[in-house]
Amino acid sequence: MKVIVDQHKCVASGQCVLTAPEVFDQREEDGIVVLLTETPPDHLMDDTRQAAILCPAQAIWVAEQEKQEGEQ
Amino acid sequence: MSTISASGTDVPPAEVPDYPMTRAAGCPFDPPPALHTLQEQAPISRVRLWDGSTPWLVTRYEDVRTLLADPRISSESTHPHYPHQSPATKERRRQSRTFITMDDPEHARLRRMVTATFAIKQVEALRPTIQKIVDGLIDAMLAGPRPVDLVQAFALPVPSLVICALLGVPYADHDFFQANSRILVKRTSTPEQAQAATQQLIDYLDRLIGDKLAHPTDDLLSALAERVRGGELSRREAANMGMLLLIAGHETTANMIALGTLALLQHLDQLARLRESDDPKLIASTVEELLRYLTIVHTGRRRVALADIDTDGVTIRAGEGVILANDVGNRDPAAFPDPDRLDVARNPRHHVAFGFGVHQCLGQPLARVELQVVYGTLYRRIPTLRLAVDPDRIPFKHDGNVYGVYELPVTW
Questions:
Q1: Percent of chain B at pLDDT above 90?
Q2: Mind telling me how many Å the CA of A54 is from chain B's nearest CA?
Q3: With contacts defined as CB-CB under 8 Å, which chain B residues touch A53?
Q4: B362 part of contact set with chain A, CB < 8 Å
Q5: Where are the transmembrane segments (chain A) (predicted)?
Q6: What residue numbers bound the domain in which A56 lies?
């Protein structure tokens, strides 16, 4: 999974920080989204996807990566 | 027989229902039944407003959410076909323009000037202060006479004290600004009443901004005054923004506290679940469920289409008004199973009570913390809290742009 954010679209609603605080933060001066990690670990994937769904400005994209060598 | 609407489209007059619609007797928490019928049978259809205009009404959750986030849908309230809630609202919007009825880039420029204050960490840092305010008001209630009106003793003071501290508005003036703000959110107010109330509030905020320019303190109005000094913002824009935040900061949350309390008192099994758990997750989930279930901004989000939009077999034409009915959207079974049941454990974070898209409520992190502290404290500290009158004697704000109760007599 790879996460992309668009700071120009962000309206600082903070939904992402409420949902996945290990992945997203807010800039102190204006609350605009800051991405803490582009590639969240497996246990944060559901929260990260949920953050993308809840973002009112649709400023978060989650690109799912194919599993390369099948299930281990 | 058909007629031509203001926007130039053929509309059969007899089939266009008036909006807003009436709730069913004895069902004060449920959206009007006619909205459910529309959601099932004609999810995008025309309604008739107070001024005779016939904008589109959108009732399904998914459509509400999609259209609120659609850049072809405008919030610009000066548009001739913008579907205003009432003559009073139309007058207020004319007199006091703020970013909630502007499009980008103007909207983003102004909104970003105040977003830092409502960032999650900033608001979380206020939690102890909010807890102290809530505890103090409960102490005063417990020490005072019974029964008491929960609206005046608790629901209105909690968010008013918080927003006053945040903005740097003296709470001692609360009777003045609450009275004027009540006129502005009431659908039956006349344009003259709205004009006078808006002017009073603008003059008041302008005076405060003048004070902050001379003697800055650590609050949001001082920060806006600083931008006025720097030439980024006009003094009028700062006063408009201050007025918006002052009204939005107390009207909505106050209604959620009082109406939410009534809803819990009418659903004692749910209240017991909340009271018997000390899990902050259940408290947070209760807040989300009450936001969804009650959807107090109950006359829809108002917009205008900027381009032709084809959706659900209907074409919304450029220039036509659109109302996104988030109240019935939040009761859509396609998005919330068994939607008319209040279930404090369901955690429906995807509800649209705060709207969606770039205009989603700026103050929602603050509202959430206030409501979490209230719902996590009040019923635990007063476990025998109950209505002091028969439920059908409670006066509801059917005439308000924000739904709630005018009074809530309680005892314990």
A1: 95
A2: 6
A3: 350
A4: yes
A5: none
A6: 2-63
pLDDT in tens, A1-55: 999 999 999 999 999 999 999 999 999 999 999 999 999 999 999 999 999 999 9
**What CATH number is given to the structural domain containing B90?**
1.10.630.10
Overall average pLDDT of the B69-98 stretch:
95
Q: Do B115 and A50 touch (CB under 8 A)?
A: no
What range defines the domain where residue B264 resides?
Answer: 47-411
Q: How far is A41 from chain B (nearest CA, A)?
A: 23
Chain A residues with beta carbon closer than 8 angstroms to that of B120 = 14, 17-18, 21, 26
Domains identified in chain A, total number: 1
Distances (CA, A) of B152 to B30, B161, B254, B396: 25, 13, 10, 15
Position of tokens 């001692």?
A: B172
Give the CATH number of the domain where residue A41 resides: 3.30.70.20
- Cis before B333? omega within 30: no
Q: How far apart are CA B375 and CA A68, in angstroms?
A: 48
Nearest to A30 among B116, B350, B360 (CB): B116
The answer as to whether B5 is a domain residue is: no
B55 cis-preceded (ω within 30 degrees of 0)? no
- H or E element that contains B302: strand B301-305
If 0-12 CB within 10 Å is exposed, 13-18 middle and 19+ buried, where does residue B196 land?
Answer: middle
The verdict on pTM exceeding 0.80 is yes
pLDDT exceeds 50 at position B7? no
CB B210 within 8 A of CB B169: no
Give chain B's count of helices (H) and strands (E): 16, 12
Angle at A36 between CA A31 and CA A38, to 5 degrees: 125
Look at B176 and A71; give whichever has higher pLDDT: B176
Q: Which residue has the tokens 């404290």?
A: B377
Residue B7 inside a domain? The answer is no
Q: In the block, which residue shows the tokens 């609050």?
A: B219
Domain-embedded: residue A8: yes
Residue A70 lies in a domain: no
The answer to whether residue A24 is domain-embedded is: yes
pLDDT digits (tens, 9 = 90+) for B303-319: 999 999 999 889 999 99
- How do strand B309-311 and strand B314-316 relate by DSSP bridges? antiparallel
Q: Which of B119, B349, B359 sits opposite A14 (nearest CB)?
A: B119
Nearest CA to B376 out of B269, B252, B257 is that of B257
**Is the Cβ of B125 closer than 8 Å to some Cβ of chain A?**
no
What are residue B304's DSSP bridge partners? B74, B321
Considering the domain boundaries, does residue B404 fall inside one?
A: yes
